[in-house]
Every structure is written in C-alpha cells, then in structure tokens.
Amino acid sequence: MLTFAFQGTSGAADFVGPDSCKGCHPEAYEAWMQSKHARAENSLSEQQQKDGRCVSCHSPDQATQTMASVTCETCHGGGQYYSPEYVMKDSELARLVGLVDPSERQCRSCHDASSPSLRPFDFKESLKAIDHWSAERARRAGRADASTTSSTAPPPASAKK
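^ thats the sequence. predicted structure below, dont judge the formating
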C-alpha cells in the first residue's frame, strides 16, 4: 500500500519560479511573458511599489516567495510538489499535491470593484486575454497524432495546411 502524507501542500509549497515551468510548457511561458501579469510590478510607480495595497495584487508573492509580478504560481499555487515531470503527467496527482486550477473567485481577489482599473472585470473575456493553454494543447495533440501515425502514413488532417 502506497501512502502520501502532505501537510497543507497547496498553501505551503515553495515556489520554483516561472523558468521551471518553461521547460515543459514553452507556449504557456511565452504567453505569460507577453502578458500584463508578467510585468504587473513594473506598472507601479516607485511609491506604489512600497504600498502594500498595490503590491498585494501587482506582486503578491514577493514578501513570502521573493517572486516579483504575477507568475504562474501566483495563480496555480507553489510548484514545489507538482512541478516534477512525473507528477505533471498525472493531472489528478498534480492537483492532489497542490496544482490549482484558477477560478473566477481567485481572479476577483485582485480584479474587483476596489481595483483602480477603470474597466469592469469580465471573467470570460479576461480568460481569453491570458490564454496560455490553447497553443500548449495544440502542440500536445500534434505530438499525440505523430506518435500514433506511422512514418509511411500520411500526416493527420490537423497537420495539413
């Protein structure tokens, strides 16, 4: 019998940093790098960078994890336990040991009525703006198609231009 004992891993896991995600999730990493989240701290003035009200959203993990801006782990939880490749290959295990699927409620902890943003927050539209999973899924689907297609068979229809 195999038993796992993790004490409060989802909230207590250390961050491994966005570069750790880049190796297995290059498309997601590039989408994040192009996002406002990656530059959230840089959008603050020097005075705002010292204001806890601003930093709590623009660089929420800086005090405890020394990570500036809004990183992968700000939304998905500290990767200490789920980042190893063998864990990430098992989505159920990854979630059991701390991988978080962000929710609207989680996003609204920063994108709320008290935010200085002049635009109202539309969760569905905002998801489109931070889409970092579509290209990743397409790449993985292409890899799956390639592994099931023999070298003499024609490429799958999805690979044709």
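The two ends are 50 Å apart (CA to CA).
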